[in-house]
Amino acid sequence: MKFVDAHIHLSDGEYSQKVGEIVEDAKRSNVVALVSNSMDLETSLLSLRLAEEYPDHVYAALGIHPWNVRNLSPNELQDTVNLIFQHEERREKVVAVGEIGLDFQYARNGKLQDVQLQVFHEMLSTAENVSLPVIIHSRGTTSQIMSLLPSYGVKKVLLHWFSRPIGLLSQIVDRGYYITEGPPSLFSNGIREIIRRIPLTNLLTETDGPVRFRGPFKGKMTTPSFIPSVVEAIAQLKGKKETEVADQIFQNFTNFFEVRGVRDKRHEERTIGV
Ligand SMILES: [Zn+2]
User: From ligand 1's centre to the CA of 269, what distance in Å?
Assistant: First the structure.
């Protein structure tokens, strides 16, 4: 079985000295691909560096997170947009624009809402221009984001850690969007209900590390080695075999991110197997 972590923050300070260790740990757990999501220009540059350093394992998503709009330096938005454009042809490294989105709990009583909206608009326009998928943070803003998205030509959309409103799931599926779920699949009733309802073809796995979790993960540093137990939980909820779930999620990953390296390796294995 092969697993994927479609949403982790390898560029986070908490991982700074440990990325090599985490990649090794991922390999031992058969987590064959990690998408390093970014928060701002600095972490975008770092995600890119990690994608170069671990070419068969780490892929970069570049962008500005809604939490970070309050700390943007004067040219940071433009420089991040330029960085994405500069890597337009390097699809083996840069696989998405993310993590982007809206989160008005972090908008200082509304003062930063307009800035978040402006940054989100720029990120979506950039993704549209370079035809990259987007990875979206939509805490408390999913309905608004769902109504904004059709104005952009972004075809591939992933709503990370989707938790509510559950009523939007059918629209998410109808539009061919994906969601990611992670360790809460083992202990959160809300997330478990979402997994029961979402077709497996629209689901990907994530850790969102270094975010820490409760349940069986309490007190542990979050690493991609959590993914096999997430897949096990999904398989139980779906009443399917773990291998079937892992294969489908792996296929979703290669379809969504169009990661050539991973796909080629899969092809080689199939050829050898024949
Ligand atoms: Zn995240």
Answer: 32
